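I have been asked to look over a protein record a colleague put together. Alongside the sequence sits a line of tokens, each denoting a local backbone shape. Please read both lines and tell me whether the tokens look consistent with the sequence. I do not need a full report, just your reasoning and any doubts. I have pasted the whole thing underneath without changing anything.
>
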Amino acid sequence: MKIYKLVLGFMAGFALFGTTSCNDMLDVDPDGHITMKDVFVDRQRTMGYLNQCYTHRAYAFCMQPALSALTDETYDAGVLNQGTASYAWYSTGMDVDTYNGIDQGIWGQMFQGIRETSNFIDYAPSFTGYQTEHELEGWTAQAHVLRAWYYTVLLANYGHFPLYTHNVSTDYWNLKKAAYGDIVKQILADCDSALNTQYDELTGFSWNIRSDENGIMTRGVAEAIRSRAILMACSPLYNDGTYTWADAVKVTGDALAACLTDGGYELWNERNESQNLDAYAAYFLQNPIDRREKDRETIYASGGRFSVWKNYGLPSTGSQTGAYLSPTQELVDCYETADGDQPILGYKDAEHTQPIYNTNCNYDPAQPYLNRDPRFYASIYYNQAPRDRTGAGSKVADIYAGGVDATDTTSVRHTQTGYYLRKYNSDLSKLNSDADGYYREFRLAELYYNFAEAAYQAGTPDQVYDLGYGIQMSAKQAVDIVRARAGMPELPSGLSKEEFEKRYRNDRMVEFAFEGMRFFDIRRWMIMPDVFGHVSGVMAEKKEDDSGYVYTRFAHKTRVATDSKYYFAPLKRTEVNKIRNATGADWQNPGWGDSEATN
């Protein structure tokens, strides 16, 4: 969408209850100000106001790689610096103030976006400026999808919140926190309002991102939001009985089928021959803005590069400043063998230093990095991993004791676990700092997994459902389709629901490693105490005869941020006080009271 430089003569507050709302400022008419009605008589002003609705997207990206630091996927070297969010998360527990380093103002930004999109939706019918056919309908659809996205972000981060669809400049004292089911109903209603508009590829609400409109809301985004929201509604953390898993099968199935057919989305399946990358590895180096021509898997992305080489790279890379996100041994253990077997079945001890090996698979603990899921090689640097996968160079990651990339739990430039982040990292980064890849907010693979979760929960892993559009699919088939892209075999048939759930959750963690997905998955599944407390690493040492390496697992200090209060983020003290003063109600999330200083 083209950005129009338009000054409306008002300043918008960022909190839920500002001293003056956008509507108040625009409804008065002194010098330098215009009313909302004046906006919607002019084409450029109207498009400019829609642009304003988009400005909060920077705070709406839930799926961010940095969130891996707060899961069992990575151990953050930032813990070495007292005062960081990771230090508090791992070592002391968090209170409302220390959590601000994670929150980054999401609550206020989302409500400002909801206020502005609601204004647009309310005033759009009065538009009298110039428009091409279906154009205003398309603009309004975009506002509906943006509002649905902002609602979804609030739900994922904070749980209950006051739900409103019109500007609340004077009657906010009547607002109450809405039920989860009602919030999801509104999210689905907004998406349905957008999707029910007249389809117009050229000027209306489109599947495609048109020229000069990168970042625009599309039908694919609406379907992805529907899929994500209904899955949340049926998950243990949010399930209040409003929706069933059968409802989730219908919504996630419809979303997936519509994207595959009408939307023309497909999994990325193109190798990068010049760098010898398989399709999975190559996908994250592909610019998602090329969706119209190349990338048909990405539904929505920011287009920004993720500088792995500098901030999360190996010390042997020139100008590297930190290793920070160090993949955990727990994540490494999730990667199956290339034959589709699980090499690690669990742990004998709480610290995860004594694995239970699967003796019925092609796995050698003395050579743990051979014969693994290709997604492992695409995502993680391990000891002696080739730095240049084309074979043109001989340099490897020397992550053994005494090596240049060795584990050093006292240095932010070195791994804390024996592994470094490779996903998003181009082999060319050491030559070209602009070669690293991109992350996505919504991609087609998520829709496959969302349907799979709903399908096995509603029935059995092998039960086939009619998704419409001539598509028949089971939970197992949905996961197998994504696994096939990575070169992995199908999951076994006939698994029980419990057996499939373990394999499904494991594969979801592998597929979306370092994408921010797990941060929210383990909350909605309510398994934080099971997976957050203990993470481990491995120390590699050369054998005396120089014939190989000995790998010894070690445990990091038990993390303290594992109790139920961490299922939702706290509201800032200033916001809590505003609400208490205005309404008399305490909207702080459970466990985050002013006196709560630790876990």
Q: What stands out?
A: The two ends are 45 Å apart (CA to CA).
